[in-house]
Amino acid sequence: MKSIDPTIAAVVRQQTGVAWSIARRLCAEGRVTINGERCLDPAARVAPGATVSVDRQAPKLRTGPLAESAIVFYDRDVVVVDKPVGMLSVAYEPGDKETLADYTRTLLRRMGGCGADAKLGVVHRLDKDTTGLMVFARTARAQRELAAQFRAHTIDRVYHAIAHGAVTATRVESDLVLDRGDGLRGSYGHFKRPKGDAPPEAKRSITHIRPIAALAGATLVECILETGRQHQIRIHLSELGHPLVGETVYIRDYPGSKIDALRPMLHARTLGFVHPRTGERILFERDAPDDFQAMVKSLRSARR
């Protein structure tokens, strides 16, 4: 197996000693070049012999936090958004700002969408470093209708992920609890021998996993959610022995060689639901962002 070239963020971190988050931000702000060319993608690979330069005083590249192209669909009832990496979906604590919900409202206002000043209704979330499709409700009725669909597990949700090791097709069903016995979320009975039935607060969770492509030390997989619990895909893949590439929480017991990444490689690719007003079933798809695709390309090349 070929060695994998380091990411530009890894080189920046090695040169400057800054944290991963700062290394990634320096790239995104346009303050890092490879052979004199600005590189905005922190996951881009640096070929042997390339010159990486970091100028922390260089003018910051001015880009909006959420491009208009991130609005996949909107009408008076709902808005579907392609969430970028590193952005909170919604405020989790008082004082949380610069969320996807905030930026989406700003974009709708700029685009002249009716009711753009109304607060967006939350019906589901994505982790800060997970990318992909989310839907917000724009009316109380739409929020009730969509929330009911999520509770009934009739929403179409397909994720792409890069997981360590050789993953085979399987269906995972477990009861997720807040503490599996070592302080982490996880499946009841996985970490510690179960004592009787799962507790009442446990959440039944089902994930369908299918390999798409074999990579160097990893697999590109499709994960279809039958239920949608917090961290469900990350937990189920980890407990199968195949934690996400870039995983930092559910990987402590993984004995294999870990592949470095700036975030867990997880992307919400497909989202489908029944429109709360028209009754029409609508489906949206968005390809994974550049950092995800760069990781796939790099690991595919390294396997040859």
Task: Write a short abstract of this structure.
With 304 residues, the chain is an alpha+beta fold. It has helices spanning 8-16, 20-28, 100-111, 140-151, 232-239, 290-303, and strands at 32-34, 37-38, 52-54, 71-74, 78-83, 121-122, 131-137, 156-164, 170-177, 186-187, 203-215, 218-225, 266-274, 281-285.
**DSSP strand (E) fraction?**
25-35%
Q: What is the end-to-end distance?
A: 7 Å
Major sheet description: 11 strands, mixed
* Fraction of residues in H or I helices: 10-25%
- Total of helices: 6
Element order, helices and strands? HHEEEEEHEEHEEEEEHEEH
Class computed from helices, strands and strand pairing: alpha+beta
Q: Using the CA coordinates, give the radius of gyration.
A: 20 Å
| Morphology call | globular
Total strands: the figure is 14
